[in-house]
């Protein structure tokens, strides 16, 4: 999942990106509203974290502009003001949740996770897929009682597919949402990840939750398909 | 005022001039008829005028009124023209007449009248009668009028200005007194407005005094808040300082706890001080609009919970306090209800006194959560306990609610709701 952070305080920007990278997200950062708007329009984002006090263009204005331009990803407001007046204004401008500074890293991760799940239509943090149980908070996957051991990138691929169930996801889209802007995109690597992921979550190849659509991409089926 | 008097003067002046000129024209016209009545024309076209012209001035040289008759070949001038240099006047066609207010160079008023004299054998002789009047007469008349007019207007204007000054001096005296008293307050000599003012100014005095009192109260509150914040920050600061160079293994944990304490102190103290600043002259805030905004926002934030709000607000209910306080209070109550409830939420609000909407409002928020036990209620509602010592039951939210309720001399009650969870009722007094 790819997240844009628009924050002008360099220290906070760095620590936010560290916390979220560690949690397995691909991060883009911007220090002002005008660049933030450009990134928001141009990058395939899954979520944006926007500070309200930004140089160039205020956070509220940025959110309004993003919504005007049909950017539908969830937006989390970061603000030092904890009064309802400000919270309501932020949410009315088109944001989905707010987080007041200073905040605990766990709180940030929980809010980001909840927003991503909500936008994918999952109310609960645990998703069941056949005999598989995926805990999106602890980022662990279970097959029955047995925990499935996934690498970071395997999990990222799986998570992205889970957030877009029953949709065709191309290899390019997958790599765009998993890697950051300056990373080296290699679609062959995605193939390798998907292959390993399949073997791990479905060792006997009987449920086949991730379907390959030749020349188009992958699709995660919520209803098991015959092998 | 003076300007309009001047304008009136000019209008009267020109009206008078116009009417005296019209009078003159009428007089000149009748002179023309007099002259014509005394005129005979012989068959060869010679003009014969009777000596008795009916107006003695025509026979008196230099009298200021002159008549000239002009036929085809002959011309007759009244005896008054003797020795007077008159302008040449041309003939005009029979049946026409004209009036000139002044002929350049000579300055005479001139009235010409063209007639056609019937001679024997159907011959017609065109004759023009011209009457000239020296402008001196009318100018004197005008001058006399003007002198009178401007003298009278001047006296009136002077009296009016004087009256205005007297009125302003006495009428605005109370305002000057207030200004003086306010500068007294600014310089610290006075605390509030004590003088008695005319009853029209009493509401102003009341409001100003109220404003001053609130300002002072706010100032005191801020000072106290900052004071206690500064004091209470010293403890965690000294903890951090002493842990900085210690080798204790729990160093990080100790310091983190101190930081959390500081964070908590800053939020609670400052927010409370800011929230409870009441404004004295507040416009009406529509309760429904604000509550709807909050519920829209909260449903967005808690969208995974499928919140089902039941909002019952008295028709047209208005809150005569700070909009920010209303948002803060209802925001915290509703947020708690969303957080701790299981989707059901009821918001009701009505005015304390239906007859007097300015008295205040009563707000009630209910949910279907676990509710608040009696023991917790006691802890939450204990008064006289300093903010930081008060147990933060429902998070920081309820503590802020309490601050606002105190600032508005209101009351808070915690009950069990028929929805199953907590029912928190709050009254805010705005008078």
Structural account:
The complex is a heterodimer of chains A (227) and B (431). Chain A has 227 residues and is an alpha/beta fold. Chain A contains 8 helices and 12 strands. Chain A folds into 2 domains: 119 residues, Response regulator (Rossmann fold, 3-Layer(aba) Sandwich); 95 residues, Winged helix-like DNA-binding domain superfamily/Winged helix DNA-binding domain (Arc Repressor Mutant, subunit A, Orthogonal Bundle), CATH 1.10.10. Chain A has a 5-stranded parallel sheet with strand order 2-1-3-4-5, with helices on both faces. Chain A has a 4-stranded antiparallel sheet with strand order 6-7-8-9, with no helix packed on it. In chain A, strands 10-12-11 form a 3-stranded antiparallel sheet. The radius of gyration of chain A is 18 Å and the shape is globular. The mean pLDDT of chain A is 86. Chain B has 431 residues and is an alpha+beta fold. Chain B has 3 domains: 140 residues; 74 residues, no CATH class; 145 residues, 2-Layer Sandwich (Heat Shock Protein 90). Chain B contains 9 helices and 14 strands. In chain B, strands 4-3-7-6-5 form a 5-stranded antiparallel sheet, covered by helices on one side. In chain B, strands 9-11-12-14-13 form a 5-stranded mixed sheet, covered by helices on one side. In chain B, helix 5 runs parallel beside helix 9 and helix 6 runs parallel beside helix 7. The longest helix of chain B has 43 residues. The radius of gyration of chain B is 49 Å and the shape is rod-shaped. The relative contact order of chain B is 0.06. At the A-B interface, helix 4 and helix 5 of A face helix 5, helix 6 and helix 7 of B.
């Amino acid at each position: 999942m790819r997240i844009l952070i628009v924050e002008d305080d360099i220290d906070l920007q760095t620590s936010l990106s560290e916390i979220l990278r560690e949690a397995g997200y691909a991060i883009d950062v911007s220090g002002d509203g005008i660049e933030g708007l450009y990134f928001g329009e141009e990058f395939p984002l899954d979520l944006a974290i926007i500070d309200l006090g930004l140089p160039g263009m205020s956070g509220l204005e940025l959110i309004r502009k993003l919504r005007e331009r049909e950017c539908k990803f969830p937006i989390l407001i970061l603000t030092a003001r904890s009064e309802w007046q400000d919270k309501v204004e932020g949410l009315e401008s088109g944001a989905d949740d707010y987080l007041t500074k200073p905040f605990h890293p766990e709180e940030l991760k929980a809010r980001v996770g909840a927003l991503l799940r909500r936008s994918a239509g999952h109310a609960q943090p645990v998703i069941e897929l056949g005999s598989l149980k995926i805990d999106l908070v602890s980022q662990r996957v279970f097959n029955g009682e047995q925990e499935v051991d996934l690498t970071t990138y395997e999990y990222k691929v799986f998570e992205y597919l889970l957030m877009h169930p029953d949709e065709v996801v191309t290899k390019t889209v997958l790599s765009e949402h998993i890697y950051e802007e300056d990373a080296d995109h290699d679609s062959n690597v995605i193939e390798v990840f998907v292959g390993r992921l399949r073997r791990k979550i479905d060792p006997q190849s009987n449920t086949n939750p991730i379907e390959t659509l030749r020349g188009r991409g992958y699709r995660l089926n919520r209803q098991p398909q015959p092998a | 005022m003076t300007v309009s008097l001047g304008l009136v003067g000019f209008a009267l002046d020109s009206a008078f001039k116009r009417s005296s000129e019209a009078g003159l024209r009428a007089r000149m016209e009748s002179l023309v008829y007099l002259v014509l009545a005394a005129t005979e024309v012989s068959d060869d076209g010679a003009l014969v005028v009777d000596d008795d012209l009916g107006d003695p001035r025509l026979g008196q040289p230099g009298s200021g009124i002159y008549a000239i008759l002009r036929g085809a070949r002959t011309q007759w001038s009244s005896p008054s023209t003797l020795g007077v240099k008159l302008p040449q006047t041309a003939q005009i066609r029979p049946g026409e007449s004209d009036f000139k207010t002044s002929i350049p160079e000579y300055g005479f008023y001139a009235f010409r009248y063209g007639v056609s004299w019937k001679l024997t054998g159907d011959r017609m002789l065109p004759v023009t009668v011209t009457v000239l009047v020296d402008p001196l007469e009318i100018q004197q008349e005008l001058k006399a009028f003007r002198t009178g007019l401007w003298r009278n207007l001047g006296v009136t204007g002077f009296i009016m200005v004087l009256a205005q000054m007297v009125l302003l001096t006495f009428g605005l005296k109370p305002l000057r007194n207030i200004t003086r008293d306010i500068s007294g307050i600014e310089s610290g000599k006075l605390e509030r407005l004590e003088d008695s003012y005319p009853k029209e100014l009493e509401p102003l005095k009341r409001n100003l005094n109220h404003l001053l009192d609130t300002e002072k109260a706010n100032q005191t509150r801020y000072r106290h808040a900052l004071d206690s914040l500064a004091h209470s920050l010293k403890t965690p600061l000294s903890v951090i300082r002493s842990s900085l160079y210690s080798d204790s293994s729990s160093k990080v944990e100790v310091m983190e706890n101190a930081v959390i304490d500081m964070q908590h102190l800053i939020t609670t103290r400052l927010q409370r001080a800011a929230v409870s600043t009441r404004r004295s002259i507040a416009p009406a805030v529509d309760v429904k609009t604000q509550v709807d905004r909050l519920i829209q926002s909260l449903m967005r934030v808690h969208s995974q919970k499928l919140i089902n709000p039941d909002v019952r607000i008295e028709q047209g209910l208005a809150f005569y306090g700070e909009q920010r306080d209303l948002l803060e209070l209802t925001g915290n109550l509703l947020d708690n209800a969303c957080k701790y409830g299981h989707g059901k939420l009821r918001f009701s609000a009505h005015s304390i006194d239906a007859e007097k909407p300015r008295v205040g409002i009563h707000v009630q928020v209910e949910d279907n959560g676990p509710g608040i036990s009696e023991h917790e209620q006691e802890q939450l509602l204990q008064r006289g306990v300093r903010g930081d010592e008060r147990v933060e039951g429902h998070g920081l939210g309820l503590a802020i609610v309490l601050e606002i309720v105190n600032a508005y001399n209101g009351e808070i009650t915690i009950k069990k709701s028929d929805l199953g969870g907590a029912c928190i009722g709050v009254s805010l007094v705005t008078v």
